[in-house]
Write a structure and sequence with these properties.
Blueprint (H helix, E strand, L loop, with lengths): L3 H19 L5 H12 L6 H10 L6 H13 L3 E5 L8 E5 L7 E5 L5 E4 L2 H13 L10 E4 L10 H15 L1
Parallel strand pairs: 3-5
Antiparallel strand pairs: 1-2, 3-4
Helix pairs in contact: 1-2, 2-4, 3-4
The structure holds zinc ion (2 copies).
One zinc ion binds next to loops.
């Protein structure tokens, strides 16, 4: 595993090369966005990234954030996910350099995303590929449910029960 600093240097070099190839301006904003992306360990949407840049007083436009994310996606510096169960769900991103392939658990209550790695998934991928004569390049696996630990922000079951109880009391 590379050190965070050298990882960022590798990411910067990759972005620089990609911008050059696309004939895009190698502006400081784009590299600041890359730096923000690589300082995070979460799965964020474009708007959250934009807000984070604003909070750090970077003068970047929303459009720059969105199109830089597209460039990062193109050159493999971020991964894009659709974690929602419907078509309207926002795309979420995470840095990809120096990260192992992993699967996700998505809490449908607090919308937090947890990650796990299990070597058996790779084994399934290889076996299925062999059996069906298919060269599998990647996979994505998402488990949906609810956190059972106390850190889940809201406990809807209790909240709903409380509302129901109050409604009954009122009648
Ligand atoms: Zn992830
Ligand atoms: Zn939760």
């Amino acid at each position: 595993m590379q050190e965070p600093q050298s990882l960022l240097a590798t990411a910067r070099a990759k972005l620089e090369k990609s911008l050059l190839a696309k004939g895009l301006r190698r502006s400081g904003e784009r590299f600041a966005i890359l730096e923000e992306v690589y300082s995070r360990n979460d799965h964020f949407d474009a708007e959250e990234l934009f807000q984070a840049m604003q909070q750090k007083s970077y003068r970047v436009s929303r459009a720059t954030v969105y199109n830089t994310l597209d460039v990062l996606l193109d050159c493999g510096l971020v991964r894009k996910h659709r974690f929602g169960e419907d078509d309207n769900s926002k795309s979420r991103y995470e840095k990809s350099l120096g990260r192992q392939q992993h699967a996700h658990l998505v809490c449908t209550v607090c919308h937090r995303v947890k990650e796990f790695c299990d070597p058996r998934l790779h084994l399934i991928q290889t076996n299925v590929g062999n059996a069906l004569q298919f060269e599998v390049e990647s996979h994505s696996l998402v488990f949906y449910g609810q956190c059972t630990d106390d850190s889940c922000e809201t406990k809807p079951n209790e909240a709903t029960q409380e509302v129901a109880k109050r409604r009954n009391d009122a009648i």
